[in-house]
Design brief:
The chain is α+β, with helices and mostly antiparallel strands. It is built from 14 helices and 20 strands. The strands form four sheets. Strands 9, 10, 11, 12, 13, 14, 16, 18 and 20 form a nine-stranded antiparallel beta sheet that branches. The radius of gyration is 21 Å and the shape is globular. The termini are far apart. About 50% of the residues are buried. The mean pLDDT is about 95.
Amino acid sequence: MGKKYDGKILLVLGSNVGAVDIVTYAKNNGAYTIVADYYPIERSSAKQMADEAIEISTADVEALVKLVKERHVSGVLAGISEFNLLKAMEIAERTGLPFYFNAEMWESIENKSKFRTLCEKHNIPCPKTYFTGKSISDTVWQRICYPVMVKPVDASSSKGVYYCSDENELRMHAIESIKESTCGEIIVEEYISGDEFTAHYTIADGRVSLASVDNRYPVAVHAGDPTTIPIARIYPFLYLGEYLRQVDPQMKALCKDIGAQNAILFIQGLYNDETNCFSIFEAGLRSAGEAPYRLIRRVNGVNAITVLVDHALSVPSEFDTEKDDPTMKGKCCGIVSFVTKGGVVGKILGLEEAVAVTPSVLEYESRYPEGTETPNGRTLRQLMIRFVMVCDSREQMEHDIKYLNEHITVLGLDGNNMVIKMEPKRVYGTK
């Protein structure tokens, strides 16, 4: 019996998170897969997995359009990279291939100002917005109440995001923030405190389901730095019941409103347990960087990546939205990281050995090998080693994180520890 993608060719742009999963699924179902970017094959797991590897930069749209036409490519897709996804959309539009979003859909979600408007339309709680645009007027300055957050309206990976406690800080950081914006615009919003979370939704043939909600466990890379990155994400969300009551129905309506028939959408927000209030502040029309489908496919038996591949190759989706279960069937799942403080990696000790005796670690990625330079910033590029984990309980998650912390060492060239590790007891809350 033939496979559903027999005779079809899928072009995958880039080697970032998600690319290997797309290639693997497409190949297993009969597609011929091509991965294109400027990386040599030895630096790309996706290229090593694919049927064919081509060294064409994902920025070279003309060359990729020519490739699609000459090779009679059936569909084009990318992993979670915003840049590659937008290039894939452009290539699809120029060659008449299907793609799961268009420019208008993308802007409505990825542009923080437009997403805020969409949330207000659907009565989804959001922070108060003081300003959106290029230059803050004197009138706006006078009505801002501090503290506030300033962000580029269209950047990702926490780039250009700053906490501002007064006007002087906002004036300084607004200049830095606007540099990270492609369109040169920023958003200034009230600062909300609470437990951070990310929720993922699956849209399959127009049906919307809540796939997961996590607790995002933030750390500051540098002392005194208020901008944080997630050292861990633990599922399910500690306040899932309240989320289902207060936010989920409105979010499902928003997902239907944008017009996408097959897609992945994530949102980020905060929950204050003292006030019992949610605040949703941004979203993406893609999987977030932690790619929770890696956990979901093992626990709930469904994988949202399949929806995107089916759409790209013009095959009806087989995704069963009824199987999406944000309670994770009673399991405690996590994506736990070691965060680099910056510098050159001298030694990574005990990694393979510790993983081998920790069955809850389903897979892991070590992004900076020995001898490579790690960044010294405040973005998701600081996530050096990631563990994808499924445990029977939060108690087991605490135990296994503690074991990994104690048995894996990452040293800089100076012989000192160069990573921040998750405090195990934080799995019970983010305080």
